[in-house]
Amino acid sequence: MPWFPEHTTKDAYISLLQQKSPPATELQLKAALLRRAMTDVDRMIKLSEDRFALVSLVQKGLVGEELWNSFLKAEQELQQDLMDVTAEADTFKEDWGQTILQTANQMELLKMDEDQKKKSNAGKDNKGKGKKK
Known about the structure:
Blueprint: H1 8-18, H2 26-59, H3 65-92, H4 96-128
């Protein structure tokens, strides 16, 4: 059982790479690679959060080895994809591989912050509903 759903941003990037008529522009490819890196960063955060709880559950015998192995496989796949993203980035611009993950992390944090603000505002909007004026 996979830990994460299908990696659609990776698939989109690969599709753009293979697109022949017309070929994808460099800008499209870079944007798709950055979106892929953002997905990887998001997955890295989730794995990091899940690891602590999962280790505790495994040690207590509350979850089976199959779940732990699924988690380890997800970590390995993510590590490989991070290396692939870094290598791909370097094909566009020398040393971009060293910074693409930092950029993706910053963008992911901004996205998470925006999502949190939207949730907070939605909660405020719902509090005012249903009151008589």
